[in-house]
Write a structure and sequence with these properties.
Elements: H1 2-24, H2 32-38, E1 42-45, E2 50-53, H3 56-73, H4 77-112, H5 121-135, H6 137-185, H7 204-230
Antiparallel strand pairs: 1-2
Helix pairs in contact: 3-4, 4-5, 4-6
């Protein structure tokens, strides 16, 4: 028995290596049916680090949307980036639900349009849409429920993102004020005083802007202080 198990294991490993070599030499699907199936091959999405089944065009649209959405939120740090990506994913799915609903109505209009002849385009469209709802109640109800769930998750995620972002910005402002005090106490080292030097989360760009604003404000108040002292 031990010899048989060892032989079976060796065969399995040899077969596995052979299958891998054959897969590397495969030219891919050649038939139309095979190419249609391959267009839905699993694609690892770079932003969310997940394997998602999408047609190539859909994956491109999804990736571009998420990248723009996340960039607009300007997240900082791992947690904010993860929440921003989650918001982008949920927002994309909400758009897809809305598109599916519109498309469902469009199909229903084509199927039910001939049932009504009102002599007025707008009322004709309204009745055709109502007929679509009446004859397809379950799909619309399911879609509506699905959309509501996504929307709730989206609102919760945005709220969490904003709270964490507010905490981070508050911390940044505190750190910028500390840097300003350090710079005022050690003017000879002003150029060497950076957020990274003290392990702060605020960026060097924000520090440069904050320092310049503080300098201009102090200059603006200086003449007033001089007048007050003379009085």
């Amino acid at each position: 028995m031990p010899q048989s198990d060892e032989k079976q294991s060796t065969c399995s490993e040899a077969r596995l290596r052979a299958n891998r070599l054959n897969a590397q030499n495969s030219p891919g699907p050649k038939t139309v049916e095979g190419k249609k199936r391959s267009c839905l091959n699993a694609t690892r999405h770079g932003i969310l680090s997940q394997t998602i089944h999408f047609p190539e065009e859909e994956m491109k649209a999804y990736t571009e949307f998420c990248e723009r959405y996340v960039a607009g939120l300007q997240p900082v740090g791992t947690l904010e980036i993860e929440l921003a990506n989650a918001c982008a994913d949920l927002q994309f799915r909400l758009h897809r639900c809305s598109a599916a609903e519109h498309n469902m109505f469009a199909i229903g209009f084509e199927e039910n349009g001939n049932r009504w002849e009102t002599g007025h385009p707008e009322s004709h469209t309204a009745l055709a849409m109502a007929e679509t709802l009446r004859s397809n109640a379950n799909p619309i109800a399911t879609l509506s429920l699905y959309e509501q769930r996504i929307h709730r998750r989206f609102v919760q995620t945005v709220k969490q993102f904003r709270e964490i972002q507010a905490e981070r910005r508050s911390l940044e402002q505190t750190q910028l004020k500390e840097l300003c005090l350090i710079a005022a106490s050690h003017p000879e080292e002003t150029e060497n005083i950076t957020p990274e030097r003290f392990g702060f989360v605020c960026s060097s760009r924000d520090w440069a802007f904050y320092r310049e604003r503080s300098r201009l404000l102090s200059t603006a108040h200086y003449p007033k202080l001089q007048k007050q002292r003379k009085r």
